[in-house]
Every structure is written in C-alpha cells, then in structure tokens.
Specification:
Blueprint (H helix, E strand, L loop, with lengths): L10 E4 L2 E4 L4 H14 L3 E6 L7 E8 L7 H11 L1 H4 L4 E8 L2
Parallel strand pairs: 4-5
Antiparallel strand pairs: 1-2, 3-4
GO cellular component, one term: mitochondrial matrix
Pfam family, one: BolA
Protein name: Altered inheritance of mitochondria protein 1
Length: 99
C-alpha cells in the first residue's frame, strides 16, 4: 500500500528538493509544476493512495510564501493544481515559508 520509507531510493538533489527516480510520471508532473511556479527550497510529492493517483501528500517550503498566512499559502498551491485536485479524493498539504 504505502511505499516503504526504509527503502533507499536513488535521488537527484536539487537544493533541498528531491526528485526521486521512484516517482511515477504523474507525481513528477505535479512536482515539476510546483517547482517551476513556487521555486521551493524543499518539496516532496507522494501518491499515498497506493498508486492509483487519487490522494497525494505534498510538503513544500518556498520563499514565495513569506508574509502569507497558511490559508493563503494553501490557496496558492490549490490554485496551481486546481485541475489535478478536481480529479483527486484528497490532499494532505503542508506549506512553510522559507525564512
């Protein structure tokens, strides 16, 4: 069901962002869209639905969130992903402003 956290994954390090070679095509598309628009210092995108693409966990830290309350940070991400989110059953979203 969930990918094992103990499994070692080859990863390309981009600052503190990780684009894992274990990410599927859809996770990678979401990751790249967020990375391009929000220039995050830390970003992870995981399908937590067991691989069917219906629920995602996204953790993102971006300087573009500076000065924004959490609700506005979430709205910014939701707006960027609105077409994708419409297809999902759920989203676990954690945002943080880079200090």
């Amino acid at each position: 069901m969930f990918r094992s956290l103990a499994r070692k994954l080859p990863q390309a390090r981009l600052g503190r962002r990780f684009l894992s070679s274990d990410m599927d095509e859809y996770e990678t598309m979401i990751y790249k869209k967020l990375a391009q628009e929000l220039e995050p210092s830390n970003l992870s995108v995981r399908d937590i639905s067991g691989g069917c693409g219906s629920m995602f966990a996204i953790n993102i830290e971006s300087p573009k969130f500076k000065g924004l309350p959490m609700i506005k940070q979430h709205r910014l991400v939701n707006e960027l992903l609105k077409d994708e989110i419409a297809k999902w059953h759920g989203l676990q979203l954690k945002t943080k402003a880079k200090k």
